[in-house]
């Protein structure tokens, strides 16, 4: 009798080196196994001063998110918004600072605390608010709700309700950029809670292996739902979570929009340079509970108040700079008034827009052949 | 006593292979563990190692011989002290199942050898008969037919679509350099390069999500799972990310991705590797679920799946990969998703099946014909959306229905069909609908138990007799 042993199934085409192979040995990738990991743990760049225009823009953008979320909280309290509603209040600087460095075609994807990301990409507050109230003018015709909205036009890819799923999906968006050979990157946002999901590391591995243009932005707001990072994470320095995959990371003050922008700028340059992914850990804080139904008893009022004060609050910090820089109180108030106007209009629309037609129950389950845009 | 060297099996489903090369000549001394020959299958090449010490006395199967049955004698080894005279009586005449004489492999009984010759007997499915001409209405009369394996048909479908559309790419474990764990992607790397034929790490959850993300961005990924058993790791992305996105997005965004790979019981791989997911995925709105039986359907439907703007679960079967069928020679052979195929017309009873279940249905129909029972056999081809109209039209004619599948019985595809038929054609039924499924047990390993766990032709015939009130 004979035994058998499987050998190489077929001739190996070792000469092939397509996108599945490293193309360059950049500083990050050149490390040998016994070399230290110091090159992977990066210092954040110097914080560049903002021009008055930049501060003014950041102020508007962050205030829009803050006022939107406050309004959403009110509407929720009145029973006009159902289900889950996760507010972004306190974290506005993160998405605002990152968005300042993106260019046309760069993609954004996040989980369910997503209203801020949508507004930052330029999605219409009316459409977002109407989705929260489940009306036909909502971005998803009222069928997605707070956690599920998308905009091809603004390159916003959701809005995902499964913790960590957006990390694999965002890696796929970056894969598409690489496949097409364009210069775009994908900003993949997730929280300190999602950072413990297995698929995050599966995605890190592939993104690094294939040098995919993705910035992983970990919004460390200190709590995975009600569990503090120290109780849920063996390694709380999330910027180091990519070390095993040779992905560099930096820790960023996510409460300072200038620090966020500076780090995002460096990250975007790194990623667009074909060096593969990078991690930005944004140290931030959410002022509200995990969702509207969370009374947040797991932390003290003092802790929250400390973050909300003028020294920490991302919006107050910009406002102080604007006034220091010579902007009058009246001018600042004018911005506030304008933003309130936009939000009130959105809330008005979201309350008066009709619910979806019952026939919508049966639409958008399948695309017809040929209807799918590229 | 001479020692017979037999054709080894590379996998439980391998039935034959080619003897590519002899590395030893008659008269050569052979040590245990020495590589003596190379054999190849459509899936892989392998080396044959000697298990015993001796001198190569006779080469029974010459190199270059194709389709050598597993366990047939390929050479004879002389033990120490033996010479050519010992060869008398040995040779091709002693072919077939390893004889008791050759049973020197340590405890291997003749029965076990038989088992190897017909690997996992329960899994030896009846030879396919040519489908009736009417079963491929999409094919113009006079079209040349080419005998093609399901494996080749699937590969051709992918290659053709990749040639037509640069957005189409394949990703999965071992799809590129290894040429596919089951060789379905053979040759694609050579033609399309590593940009479009992407080997992934063993991370189903992650790469399924990457595929869905790439689809959201407008590419047309074909995500291969080495088997659908491993897609359990990725099922969140198949259902939550792929199937539901279009609805949740109000039509703003979809994910045109094809998840494909072998599904269902292979042979002798036990519970975690033997499961039919047809019923699972058919449950989910937003997905289309295709499970072809023939090579023509595999090709035409995979091409349609790749072009379809919706997420598709395309369930193949390892045992069918090597089976050959007529495939029409056409520039662009695409079949409609969601259309059943009448494999055989009949008037007495309707047998509905899909995928490998068709092998039981066809064989049963043949045997029933000999008993004077004229069965109509319908191949669903697509599980979702399901072509119930074709089933109901048939039931209106035959008044009797049996469904056949390998999956578990509770909430099976057949149960759904039975429910729909009793609602839409109750007055036409002359007997209860019987759904035949795999047994309600995890798949056992032992050959005899495995056979018991799967449906069989006898069950189908018994069910038909029951609903036609024969003996």
Task: Describe what you observe in this structure.
The complex is a heterodimer of chains A (374) and B (471). With 374 residues, chain A is of the alpha/beta class. Chain A has one domain: 3-Layer(aba) Sandwich (Rossmann fold). Chain A is built from 11 helices and 9 strands. Chain A has a 6-stranded parallel beta sheet, with helices on both faces. A two-stranded antiparallel sheet of chain A has the order 6-7. In chain A, helix 1 packs across helix 2. With 471 residues, chain B is an alpha/beta fold. In chain B, helix 10 crosses helix 14. The interface between A and B is large, with 71 and 80 residues. Strand 1 of chain A pairs antiparallel with strand 5 of chain B, so a sheet runs across the interface.
Topology (elements, then pairings):
The complex is a heterodimer of chains A (374) and B (471).
Chain A: E1 2-6, E2 41-42, H1 52-77, H2 92-99, E3 107-109, H3 115-120, H4 125-132, H5 165-180, E4 186-191, H6 198-209, E5 214-220, E6 223-224, E7 227-228, H7 229-232, E8 249-253, H8 257-272, E9 278-283, H9 301-308, H10 314-324, H11 329-352
Parallel strand pairs in A: 2-8, 3-4, 4-5, 5-9, 8-9
Antiparallel strand pairs in A: 6-7
Chain B: E1 3-6, E2 16-22, E3 29-30, E4 35-40, E5 45-50, E6 54-59, E7 65-69, E8 73-78, H1 110-117, E9 145-149, H2 150-164, E10 168-172, H3 188-192, E11 197-199, H4 204-216, E12 220-224, H5 235-243, H6 245-248, E13 258-262, H7 278-282, E14 288-290, H8 295-307, E15 312-316, H9 318-321, E16 324-328, E17 341-344, E18 349-353, H10 357-370, E19 375-379, E20 382-384, H11 388-398, E21 401-404, H12 413-424, E22 434-436, H13 447-453, H14 457-467
Parallel strand pairs in B: 10-11, 10-12, 12-13, 13-15, 14-15, 18-19, 18-21, 21-22
Antiparallel strand pairs in B: 1-8, 2-4, 2-7, 3-6, 4-5, 6-8, 9-16, 14-20, 17-19
């Amino acid at each position: 009798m004979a035994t058998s042993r499987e050998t190489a199934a077929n001739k190996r085409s070792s000469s092939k080196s397509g996108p599945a192979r490293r193309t360059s040995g950049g500083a990050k990738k050149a490390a040998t196994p016994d070399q230290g990991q110091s090159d992977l743990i990066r210092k954040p760049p110097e914080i560049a001063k903002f021009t008055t225009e930049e501060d003014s823009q950041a102020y508007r953008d962050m205030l829009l998110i803050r006022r939107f979320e406050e309004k959403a909280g009110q509407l929720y309290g009145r029973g006009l918004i159902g289900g889950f509603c996760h507010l972004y209040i306190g974290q506005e600087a993160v998405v605002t600072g990152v968005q300042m460095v993106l260019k046309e075609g760069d993609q954004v994807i996040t989980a369910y605390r997503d209203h801020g990301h949508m507004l930052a990409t330029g999605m219409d507050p009316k459409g977002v608010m109407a989705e929260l109230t489940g009306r036909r003018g909502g971005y998803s015709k009222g069928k997605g709700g707070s956690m599920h909205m998308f905009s091809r036009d603004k390159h916003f890819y959701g809005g995902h309700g499964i913790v960590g799923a957006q990390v694999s999906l965002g890696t796929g968006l970056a894969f598409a950029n690489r496949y097409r050979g364009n210069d775009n990157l994908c900003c993949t946002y997730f929280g300190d809670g999602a950072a413990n999901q297995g698929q995050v590391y599966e995605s890190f591995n592939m993104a690094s292996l294939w040098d995919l243009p993705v910035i992983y932005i970990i919004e460390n707001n200190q709590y995975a739902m009600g569990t503090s990072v120290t109780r849920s994470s063996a390694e709380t320095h999330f910027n180091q979570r990519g070390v095993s995959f040779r992905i560099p990371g930096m820790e960023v003050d996510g409460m300072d929009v200038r620090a966020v922008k500076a780090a995002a700028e460096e990250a975007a340059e790194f990623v667009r340079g074909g060096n593969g992914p990078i991690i930005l850990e944004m140290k931030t804080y959410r002022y509200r509970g995990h969702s509207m139904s969370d009374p947040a008893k797991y932390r003290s009022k003092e802790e929250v108040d400390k973050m909300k004060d003028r020294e920490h609050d991302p919006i107050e910090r910009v406002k102080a700079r604007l006034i220091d820089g010579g902007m009058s109180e009246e001018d600042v108030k004018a911005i506030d008034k304008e933003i309130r106007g936009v939000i009130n209009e959105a809330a008005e629309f979201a309350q008066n827009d009709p619910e979806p037609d019952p026939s919508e129950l049966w639409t958008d389950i399948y695309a017809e052949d040929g209807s799918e845009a590229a | 006593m001479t020692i017979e060297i037999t054709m080894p099996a590379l996998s439980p489903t391998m039935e034959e292979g080619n003897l590519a090369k002899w590395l030893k000549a008659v008269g050569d001394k052979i040590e245990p563990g020495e590589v003596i020959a190379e054999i190849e299958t459509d899936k892989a090449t392998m080396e044959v190692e000697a298990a015993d010490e001796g001198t190569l006395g006779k080469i029974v199967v010459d190199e270059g011989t194709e389709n050598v049955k597993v366990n047939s004698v390929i050479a004879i080894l002389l033990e120490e002290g033996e010479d050519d005279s010992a060869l008398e009586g040995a040779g091709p005449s002693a072919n077939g199942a390893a004889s008791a004489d050759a049973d020197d492999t340590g405890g291997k009984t003749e029965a076990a050898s038989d088992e190897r010759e017909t690997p996992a007997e329960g899994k030896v499915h009846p030879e396919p008969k040519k489908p009736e001409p009417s079963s491929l209405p999409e094919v113009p009369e006079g079209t040349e037919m080419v005998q093609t394996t399901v494996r080749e048909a699937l590969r051709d479908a992918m290659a053709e679509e990749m040639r037509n559309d640069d957005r189409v790419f394949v990703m999965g474990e071992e799809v590129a350099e290894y040429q596919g764990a089951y060789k379905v992607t053979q040759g694609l790397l050579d033609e399309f390069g590593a940009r479009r034929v992407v080997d992934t790490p063993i991370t189903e959850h992650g790469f399924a999500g990457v595929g869905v993300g790439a689809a959201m961005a407008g590419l047309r990924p074909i995500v291969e799972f080495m088997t659908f058993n491993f897609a359990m790791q990725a099922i969140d992305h198949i259902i939550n990310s792929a199937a539901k996105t279009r609805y949740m997005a109000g039509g703003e965004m979809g994910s045109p991705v094809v998840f494909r790979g072998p599904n269902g019981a292979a042979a002798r791989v036990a519970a975690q590797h033997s499961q039919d997911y047809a019923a699972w995925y058919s449950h989910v709105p937003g997905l289309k679920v295709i499970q072809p039986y023939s090579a023509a359907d595999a090709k035409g439907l995979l091409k349609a799946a790749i072009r379809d703007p919706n997420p598709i679960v395309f369930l193949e079967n390892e045992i069918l990969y090597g089976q050959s069928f007529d495939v029409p020679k056409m520039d662009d052979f695409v079949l409609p998703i969601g259309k059943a195929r009448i494999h055989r017309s009949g008037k007495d009873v309707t047998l509905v099946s899909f995928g490998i279940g068709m092998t039981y249905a066809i064989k049963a129909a043949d045997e029933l014909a000999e008993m004077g029972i004229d069965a109509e056999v319908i191949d669903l081809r697509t599980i979702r959306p399901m072509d119930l109209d074709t089933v109901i039209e048939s039931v209106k004619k035959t008044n009797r229905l049996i469904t056949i599948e390998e999956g578990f019985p509770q909430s099976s595809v057949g149960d759904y069909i039975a429910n729909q038929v009793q609602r839409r054609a109750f007055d036409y039924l002359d007997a209860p609908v019987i759904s035949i499924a795999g047994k309600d047990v995890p798949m056992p390993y032992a050959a005899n138990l495995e056979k018991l766990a799967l449906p069989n032709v006898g069950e189908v015939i018994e069910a038909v007799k029951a609903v036609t009130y024969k003996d």
